[in-house]
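FAQ: What does the model actually see?

It sees only this:
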Amino acid sequence: MSHTPFFADRTHAGELLAQVIHDVLTQQTIDSGVKPVPIVYALPRGGVPVAVPIARLLDCPLTIVVAKKISHPENSELAIGAVTTSGNVLWSNQKLFRPQHDTRLREVALNKAIKQAKSLETQLITACPQVNAENATVILVDDGIATGMTIAVAATAIKMLSPAAVWLCTPVAPQKLLPWLEQWGDRTIVLETPESFWSVSNFYAQFPQVDTLEVFRYLQQQNTIGPMDLCE
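And it is asked to produce this:
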């Protein structure tokens, strides 16, 4: 399935998304008389290059929340759920196991995903500022949403930090997924919502794999030049 790309690359998508988020925050300030305190949380790895222009325009810290899809043990491409490093789990509603195998295989798949998530977090966390999300407006960013499970479980984890609001923000997501996504956050901002949707990569002219070292450098650079006034 082919599509005309909406975005040149993740940075371009982030710049466009940043302007929309900035405008919404500005309007919210005008309407309420209270200026929100934003913190950008990115889903690594692909969400970080999108999040950098957002944190830069909002003049706020950039950090991460790591969520990994839980893959079916017999088919790594088939997502049966998602989990965060803090242990928040969201399972797919689809019946993907035979009943007699359900509990054991789920446990194997879950443990593998948690291990992967914690490994990635360990490699990146030293480049992140120590932020306090309490009463902040959390801008949760990914480079695209296909099933929604990883950003949904990430939002669940962030809500435990008592923010004022959690916004789910992404350049592209399927139109049919929007009603389901809205239950996980206080606001959903999606630039493009095509009805025909196969893969996030189809909507980018350039969509290379983002390696961990590259993400580390993005985070390190942004948080070196960015403000640290929200840090504890």
